[in-house]
Design brief:
Number of domains of chain B: 1
GO molecular function, one term (chain B): ATP binding
CATH class of chain B: Alpha Beta
Radius of gyration of chain B: 22 Å
Strand order of the largest sheet of chain B: 5-6-7-3-8-9
Pfam families (chain B): ABC_tran
Structural class of chain A: mainly alpha
Number of strands of chain B: 9
Organism (chain B): Actinomycetospora endophytica
Order of helices and strands of chain A: HHHHHHHHHEEHHHHHH
CATH topology of chain B: Rossmann fold
Shape of chain B: globular
Family (chain B): Belongs to the ABC transporter superfamily.
Number of helices of chain A: 15
Distance between the termini of chain A: 45 Å
Largest sheet of chain A: 2 strands, antiparallel
Strand content of chain B: 15-25%
Shape of chain A: globular
Protein name (chain B): ABC transporter ATP-binding protein
Oligomer: heterodimer
Structural class of chain B: alpha/beta
Number of strands of chain A: 2
Helix content of chain B: 25-40%
Chain lengths: ~325, ~300
């Protein structure tokens, strides 16, 4: 058969443009469809070996030529926790045995959250080369970014274990952060609540990375804006200070207003659900409720963005 | 079933310059109520492209620089989804584009092989079992443990070709960059590519090299300013594109190897059904001494 394949088939094809369009409609779903969006997520989950490997690669990469490698992550966390915990326990007149674990856990989870937000905005921009040259689900890069943060977090967890070992006696009995303030029960089995809390935070890290990643790829002003806001949020969030200090103000007093404003900060609630169990503090279910609502709303927005702009990211990077 | 169907597809690139790409224009522009020319300029890289490829097709893509060859390849690879029209790709795609990009220069060749393989849908186990074969084929030896930034362009091409040909892709998409390797390796790669295409799938290949096109493809598409100008048998299309008979430029040695007869009918003369001059699937596979290719 010497007739060229293309020419041969061309004759059999429906020639009318209407026929062709109708046939295409039946077979190829529109780029903006829920099926394609969820298909993207599923395909990325199936390729977990890929983003798992890329995430590890990123961690190793950062410390490629250093002798002790990723141990630096742990060391820098330990130095920060020791310095700030030590300093602020004196400034706020806090017993170091309970304040040091408080600051350590707060920092650990803040690092994770802020890295998800900051590196989330860069997630597609940083993977520009891969996106433009290899066909792959978009969510691969989201998973890669968040997985990398989980690995960093795991390195930082070592610091918590060390701090816990040192201050175990102080932390396991009831204590107060503020004189005549809230009485905290001390560390107990409720510490296990930190596990679902971390899972919830990771789930939120995913939507943040996806949504901010898509927006920032289109509008390149977003990363610097986000990074300056994160600095502000760091001060606003009770990490090196405690909301116990704000309790007990009369209604309408400046203290109660600040207390109210602090509660509007979404980061506060996420930090609290993770930190309170790990340092044996009183846990309020309102934090879980707020985090739950944010998770649902955030994922809804991120899925809409994925559905509508998934196919555009390759054009924008 | 391996297939690619593209219907009336267009690819438009929005070009955001620094101003357009910021929120400022979207936000302030609306507030002012006076929109001058807020529209983002658009580059129409592909316009109204329709084509349909099936298993066994080996398509060469020709056209001037900027004619839309690479964009079409990316559309066929599923990297760009058409802004208008539809594209449906079925089968496992392995693209080889610009070789510097998509590989991490800081990690070793071996790691890059693994990552590339994972991207193309393989598992880690499958890739580990292929590493020796790839090392063998690319002849890079101990170099594979060196960071990729120490590789020459040709070595990168070897690596990329080694990976895509080892994983049995169903749709192989090659951009012109693969010309950077030396002649000996080229021969080896060519045999492997032909073998691969005859075994499993489909090849779409953009190239300016006549020899390459003749070796690997049997049909061709001529792209011009984002549109398909002509598509059909390789000889017809490339001859029309170059303005001279494709076979004139081939060395006698190539002609002999491919069993082509330079004196065969010119593509425009005889009776249509028997003019396909280039290697078809049948002769590619058989490679016999049959003198009658292209003759009535």
């Amino acid at each position: 058969m010497a007739v060229p394949a293309l020419a041969r088939r061309g004759a059999d094809e429906p020639s009318g443009p209407d026929d062709a369009a109708a046939a295409a409609d039946l077979r190829a779903p529109s780029p903006r469809s829920w099926r394609r969006a969820f298909g993207d997520i599923k395909a990325a989950i199936d390729q977990r070996e890929l983003w798992g490997h890329l995430g590890w690669q990123d961690v190793k990469q950062r410390y490629r030529r250093s002798t002790i490698g990723p141990l630096w992550i742990t060391i820098s966390m330990a130095v920060t926790a020791a310095a700030l915990g030590g300093l602020y326990s004196q400034l706020f007149d806090q017993p170091i045995g309970t304040f040091m674990p408080y600051v350590t856990v707060g920092f650990m989870i803040w690092y994770f959250i802020s890295a998800c937000v900051l590196e989330g905005t860069e997630t597609f921009i940083a993977n520009e080369g891969l996106i433009r040259f290899l066909p792959a689900p978009l969510m691969i890069y989201v998973f890669r970014t968040v997985w990398r943060q989980v690995l960093f977090f795991a390195h930082n967890l070592v610091v918590y274990v060390i701090v816990l070992a040192i201050f175990f006696p102080e932390l396991t009995r009831p204590y107060q952060m503020v004189h005549n303030g809230v009485m905290h029960p001390g560390l107990g089995w409720s510490a296990l609540f930190a596990i679902p809390a971390f899972v919830l935070i990771v789930i939120n890290g995913l939507w943040v990375t996806l949504l901010f990643g898509i927006i920032a790829t289109r509008f390149r002003d977003i990363p610097p804006v986000v990074s300056s806001f994160m600095q502000l949020f760091f001060t606003m969030t009770p990490i090196i200070w405690t909301t116990d200090l704000l309790k007990g103000g009369r209604a309408g007093s400046p203290r109660s207003i600040v207390d109210f404003v602090a509660k509007l900060n979404p980061f506060y609630h996420f930090i609290e659900i993770f930190r309170a169990p790990l340092v044996g503090q009183v846990q309020s279910w309102t934090h879980w409720a707020v985090c739950g609502v944010i998770t649902v709303v955030g994922w809804a927005l991120a899925l809409i963005a994925l559905r509508n702009y998934r196919s555009r990211v390759a054009y924008w990077v | 079933m391996v297939s690619i169907d593209v219907q009336n597809a267009s690819v438009d690139f929005p070009i955001f310059d620094a101003k357009n790409r910021s929120l400022k224009k979207s936000v302030l522009g609306r507030a002012g109520g006076h929109i001058t020319d807020a529209k983002v300029p658009v580059v129409e890289a592909l316009r109204d492209v329709s084509l349909s490829l099936r298993q066994g097709d080996r398509v060469g893509l020709v056209g001037h620089n900027g004619a839309g060859k690479s964009t079409l390849l990316r559309l066929l690879a599923g990297i760009y989804e058409p802004t208008r029209g539809r594209a449906k790709i079925e089968g496992r795609v392995a693209p080889v584009f610009d070789l510097a990009v998509g590989m991490d220069p800081e990690i070793s060749g071996l790691e890059n092989i693994l990552i590339r393989g994972l991207f193309l849908g393989m598992t880690r186990k499958q890739m580990e079992s292929r590493v020796d074969e790839i090392a063998d084929f690319t002849e890079l030896g101990d170099y594979l443990t060196m960071p990729l930034r120490t590789y020459s362009t040709g070595m990168r091409v070897r690596l990329a070709l080694g990976v895509v040909t080892s994983i049995d892709p169903e749709i192989l998409i090659l951009d012109e960059g693969i010309g950077a390797v030396d002649a000996a390796f080229l021969e080896k790669a060519r045999d492997r590519l032909r073998d691969l295409v005859s075994r499993s799938g489909m090849l779409v290949f953009a190239s300016h090299s006549d020899e390459f096109l003749v070796e690997l493809c049997d049909t061709a598409i001529w792209m011009d300013t984002g549109e398909i100008k002509e598509q059909g048998s390789l000889r017809e299309v490339v001859s029309a594109y170059k303005g001279r008979d494709l076979f004139d430029s081939l060395s006698p040695e190539t002609m002999r190897r491919l069993d082509l007869d330079p004196g065969a009918s010119s593509p425009v003369t005889s009776n249509g059904s028997t003019t396909a001059p280039a290697a078809t699937d049948a002769d590619a596979a058989a490679k016999t001494e049959d003198e009658t290719v292209g003759l009535p």
